[in-house]
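Narrative summary of target 7.
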Amino acid sequence: MGSAQKGEAHEIASATKNRIVGVAELRTNTGFPALQAKAEGYKVYTVMDASGDPSEMASRTTLARLTQAGIVPMSTNAVFCELQRTWNRPDAAAFGALYGEYAPNYKAVVESYQKAQEVKK
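Modeled conformation, tokenized:
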């Protein structure tokens, strides 16, 4: 049974007027709450790389099942971009730090840029 089927997450989602829901958990388990939310009329996004699978076959079949049902697969990177939208915001540094924890290559580029700016002074 998925966490959204009979639990707090389902109650919270049902109580809001927002008809968009995101799902991220073990992908083979993501299907159940995602499919239920879709059946209840929600626009459903699932974060495919925010979870794991027991096998590549499980990942592929779950992705196929969800997309056939109209559920939109997303990556963690896409979620960051959707939430942040722009660097022109007061909390941009916090987003950058959080994104740096997710994407070490990004963190390395930022550190390199900061060091270059220090040397330039």
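The chain has two domains: 1-74, 87-121.
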